[in-house]
């Protein structure tokens, strides 16, 4: 099971929306049951990423993360969404 960390400023509103979109994306690509999503505030991201394969954040990636990073902003704006989706599917499929 691959851990995905979804972070925003507070770990509540925006990360919830982005987390749902990521789950829908991965399930639609046959990856259901191969991941679990954890939401957090961006300040908690470095510790949450210690055992994760991916951080998706609606802010700039903090220093000290040890996993792959994909910006979550495209899931809010739509700009660059296809590229972000492709990278997430590739990381979870690997």
From TrEMBL:
SUPFAM superfamilies from the UniProt entry: PTS system IIB component-like
An annotated GO BP: phosphoenolpyruvate-dependent sugar phosphotransferase system
Source species, domain of life: Bacteria
Record GO terms (molecular function): protein-N(PI)-phosphohistidine-sugar phosphotransferase activity
Phosphotransferase system EIIB component type 2/3 domain span: 3-60
Pfam families associated with the record: PTS_IIB
Record carries keyword Transferase: yes
Keyword Transferase set for record: yes
Keywords associated with the record: Sugar transport, Transferase, Transport
Designated name of the protein: PTS sugar transporter subunit IIB
């Amino acid at each position: 099971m691959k851990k995905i960390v979804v972070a925003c400023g507070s770990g509540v509103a925006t990360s919830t929306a982005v987390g749902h979109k990521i789950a829908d994306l991965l399930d639609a690509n046959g990856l259901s049951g191969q991941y679990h999503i954890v939401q957090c505030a961006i300040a908690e991201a470095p510790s949450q990423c210690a055992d994760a394969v991916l951080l998706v954040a609606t802010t700039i990636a903090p220093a000290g993360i040890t996993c792959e990073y994909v910006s979550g902003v495209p899931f809010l704006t739509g700009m660059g969404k296809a590229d972000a989706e492709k990278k997430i599917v590739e990381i979870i499929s690997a």
